[in-house]
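DATA SHEET
Item: assembly model
Revision: 1
Owner: S.N.
Input lines:
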Amino acid sequence: MNTSTPRLMIDAVRVEKNLNRLAAYGKSHNLDIRPHTKTHKSLKLARMQLQAGAIGLTVAKVGEANIMAEICDDVLVAYPTVDAWRCKQIAQLAQKQKITVALDSDIAVESLSHAAKKYGCTIGVLVDMDVGFHRTGVQTALAAFELAQKIDQAPGLRPDGLFCFPGQVWELPENQGPVLAEISSKLAEALDLFSRHGLPAPMVSGGSTPSAFQSHLVPEFTEIRPGTYIFNDMNTVRGGFCELDDCAATILTTVVSDAVPGQVVVDAGSKTLTSDRCGPEPQSGYGYILEYPEAKITALSEEHGQVEVRTCDHVPTVGERVTIIPNHICPCVNLQDYAWWVEPDRPPEPLPIDARGKVA
Amino acid sequence: MNTSTPRLMIDAVRVEKNLNRLAAYGKSHNLDIRPHTKTHKSLKLARMQLQAGAIGLTVAKVGEANIMAEICDDVLVAYPTVDAWRCKQIAQLAQKQKITVALDSDIAVESLSHAAKKYGCTIGVLVDMDVGFHRTGVQTALAAFELAQKIDQAPGLRPDGLFCFPGQVWELPENQGPVLAEISSKLAEALDLFSRHGLPAPMVSGGSTPSAFQSHLVPEFTEIRPGTYIFNDMNTVRGGFCELDDCAATILTTVVSDAVPGQVVVDAGSKTLTSDRCGPEPQSGYGYILEYPEAKITALSEEHGQVEVRTCDHVPTVGERVTIIPNHICPCVNLQDYAWWVEPDRPPEPLPIDARGKVA
């Protein structure tokens, strides 16, 4: 058996628990779940999400859509497609199945309509509305309505409703009420315009992992798209959205040096853990070492993780293996060709990261 | 032709210029060049480095060594190998060719010797000495000497000399004199101990891209191992080690949104550019946009790059393509399955990133 490190380990029991928890929440609030597969990029895990009741899948890029379409006939591309290459890919998928795209510009509408006409298909379109994260999305209810009208008039496109990403919501769950009420009010204003002009909006897609279990406070949502919830990471732990025991994905590493006093070096650097800092606690280092909670990963080179161990009661020795929960699991998974799937009482099995590197 | 973005573009003319410049420097100072291939992870580019006169190649991990050994019979693994899996891989390579490993612990010596005995091979070993970066490496000349003695006595191992990584040297080239003199003095002290006890040290391996062209100020060096010099990036530009025109690797991106006032979004996020900040100018954003020098990439999501364009005379439009020089090119290359190799008057060709993801 290949015993090499660094190695991405996925705990099957914790994955199932995380999936079931969200599925139960969705069911109890009559809210559809459309998990964002950018976190795991795995067909096996996407299948598990569908089996747990997800109504479809979310992807960021069309490269991911091409992979996930192998197992799902209802894929949402949560990304504006404006260039000819992406629009062509989407149209070709739409010839075979339901595809929905979130976009925020006239140019995107025109490009996508052009491709839909050329390939003789119908593509569902959501208007991406900025509800406070200020990354993409039209700025006002009126702009959302006007873009929806354009979609409605564009050949080959079907206006399906609204889309938003509440990425700014990192308050503790119990404190999210005011910001979610504001989001609800913005969406309601747009939906009111849609409704008064007879524009359909069967889908209102929102949600992120931090806000996932408060999504009922935005009654306009028909579905949510959390991604990280399947694994969790130090962002969601330190943000107060889960416990350490809810983290299903870890990096197994080997200590390769202790030559510098007060420090050990593990064989996971930025090419394994990424340079992402922890959002809620940027000074907490580049991940959390389960066996040495007092240790701090203070610096990363590409293949070295420097771990400050001065405050540890005992310190890891060269050759020892230690387990790291990364700050942000999604880009870490994207660095691996495969992970190891760990079920109780069975040897770990390779789990392909099918959509790894599909950034186009 | 696949016109998708984001796309890693490699400029063949600039690569050749960068390779030739370092080769000429090495020749004029009688200094061997052993390029670090972690930057490009490409067999084609490694071949070009060997053709330009490199005496061998450097790799970080044994997964990379297995790839580079296909075309090079003198590979240095610039990384301590302490676990059984890595030592076995090294020993199996050493059965066929020259392999040298840099290490800094008794445990690493014992593990590697165990594998060398088992596979009936001889492995060259360099003592990794800390010369100020404080990542790995023994701390004193005496410790270096004692570890070299252990290597000398360990079956299957051949003491080849000293290794260091002067990663702390980011002063402007003209100001590097004092810090390089200090490094020279540390190495000389260890080499004097080696020499007085009849321990051979035919190799003294050092060097990084920022210090590459000042390496003659450390006369102990027999070879240097720069990696980034083949491409350069915003770290080396803003550090004062090259000009923008020396950057051979760029990311071609598409503007996908301009819905948020004062900002556009490109389709390269942290899964393309990484979250690495610019070492010399951490507040300069996540890369440099060639066509819009006044623009600033202020934030990255996984697939979105948010570009502040308020200070631009004119702003990029949705669908437009813009070219980004990343802060740190090495981990960006590691995210791509292939790059595009651009020669004058020829269509771009795919360039496989052969050792991508080989972090074991």
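QC remark: The domain at 236-352 of chain A is CATH 2.40.37.20 (Lyase, Ornithine Decarboxylase; Chain A, domain 1).
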